[in-house]
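Q: How do we represent a protein-ligand complex in a form that can be generated token by token?
A: Start from the inputs.
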Amino acid sequence: MSTETKAPANINLIQALNWALHDAMEADENVIVFGEEVADPEGGGVVKISSGLSTKYGSRVRSTPISEMGFMGAAVGAAVVGMKPVVEIMLMNFVAVCMDQITNHAAKLRFMSGGQTHVPMVIRTMTGSGIQNGGQHSDFLEAWFCHTPGIKVVMPSNPVDGYGLLRSAIDDPDPVLFVEHLKSYFAPGIAPERGSKIPLGKARIHKAGTDVTVIGYSRSMLDIPPVAAKLQAEGISCEVIDLRTVSPLDMETILTSVKKTGRVVVVHEAVKSFGVGAEISARIHEALFKELKAPVQRVASNDSPVPYAPPLEAAFLYSHADIEAAIRRTLA
Amino acid sequence: MNTYQPDSETLVDIYRKMTLIKQSDDRVIGAMKAGRMRMPYYSARGQECIPAAISVLLTDEDYLVTIYRGVHDMLAKGLPAKLLWAELAGKATGSCKGKGGPMHLTYPSKGCMVTTGIVGSSMPIACGLGLASQLRGEKRVTIANFGDGASNIGAFHESLNLAAVWKLPVIFVCQNNQYAEHTSYSKGTSVAKISDRAVSYCIPGLHVDGNDPIAMYSAAKTAIERARSGEGPTLIEAMTFRFNGHLIGDMGEYIPKAEYAAAVAADPYPKYRSWLLETKQASEADLDAIDLAIRAEIDEAEAFAMSSPPPDAIEVKRDVYAYEIA
Ligand SMILES: Cc1ncc(C[n+]2csc(CCOP(=O)(O)OP(=O)(O)O)c2C)c(N)n1
Ligand SMILES: [Mg+2]
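Then emit the structure tokens for the protein with magnesium ion bound:
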């Protein structure tokens, strides 16, 4: 790596992703970045993840008009001829206005062209409830994309993973949706080593354990560890898995763990019905039905739009008590 | 476009609405700064003349669709201040039971049909409201509000074309405050005037000073009469400025200082008040009385919001469908 700066011990996800973009642009001139307000005159991104890029790389970094369908399609086109666009959709809900380019084009062109073309692009976006942003600015919509063959879905929970996964996502020959969580941005973590990439499709054992496998990603990785620590004090040993890549799922890591524990809880912020938890549960039942000691439990948000008022936001999202109760149910 | 001279009563009505919007906005921001309220709040301070001048031409039957920056549109159309404040405070007594918040204000009994947080999405919905009233043979018109940045999204172009082809009774009101978040107008928009885009859809495009009540009133009257008589849609581009940034907390570093200072110097609110007095449309005592009455209305709204109960947790199970979910 050309940018061998001595890393500070603690940084947050915002800085880690900023490093990843800088390093990827430095490493490959085909990497281009665009989206609303991503260039420095417009602030370098809402939370400054693209800060400094336009100043350094000029026209390879562009703030776009508010035209998601237009610039998402432009990313697809540029990717088809070998550029590596990293486009930002300011908040995840806004993917709804450019779904056509993502699901009908980016995800399918490789297949429909019989492998003649492919779409090496990354769509970065952020989301999360709990800050009174209401029904159109808070949703976790990853299941829409997990249900779309041809696109990968990556959802990091900490700076090291954020850096390494974004580097790999940019290198990947296929489209990747990269979902960031608002509350994870500011949580300090260990600084990544610049240049170190983390393979897509590989989960991480956050904490080894023997009694219950607790699977999370993104936001829920802020919530599972404290509950697991609390139960550990009582002698309940949780194995905590951070999926990191949600699609394709790392079934090897999941099944290895479940063979050991026989009990599973899946936790995500997205609403429960027809979600990632359901898919994981189904696959575990298909593979290990006889080895399960309890039905797989899902902890997720209420099946409603995200409400505005704080007490309703609290009722919408799962609580630590919900995670704890689900773990205990598997042990009952 | 004709210039229409509203009578004194109408002019004072416009002042009353502008005052309501301005006072409510000042007080919301005050409550936020004092820590009594917390929300993503998109102030429309500086833009109050636009909905005030339009809404004196509307009835409760007419429809309104607006955006996250739409408190001014809603108040002018008749959303009661109490219900607005309770909604902003996230209370059970709010117009949307505390479920929607500032970005989704709704009050159908005054025609306030939809508030969207998605840029561009007010316009297709306005076409549907217009279609319904056209098919039912009603005389209602629909006002679709949106920003300058929203004119660059596909939905704007599709809606103008659809409304033109179907001759829908819709007035597209682009409130051009010259910024879309931190992006200045010319960085995102290919035309010097958004109203010129009407040409592509063979509909009238009116470019007006949205901070001038008479000009705004005249443009709105022209467009509303055209819509009511079945001749179809109009695009109005109303030039204005937002004084409090994109949302509260935005410090406006991206706005050149001279530009901001000039905009504030041209603040439509004090300017209009002075004009009403100079031209003897109203006396100082008349306007003072309005100011005081509105202060009392906002006092009451704030007290109502603060003393109202929060929504019960069961409400996340209600209104997802017509029935309560498990
Ligand atoms: C489809 C979509 N893209 C992006 C956003 C984020 N966003 C919210 S407001 C805004 C700027 C809109 O500017 P403009 O249309 O001029 O309206 P203004 O806020 O100035 O009133 C942006 C980009 C959004 N809400 N919806
Ligand atoms: Mg604007």
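The radius of gyration of chain B is 19 Å. Chain B is about 40% helix and 10% strand.
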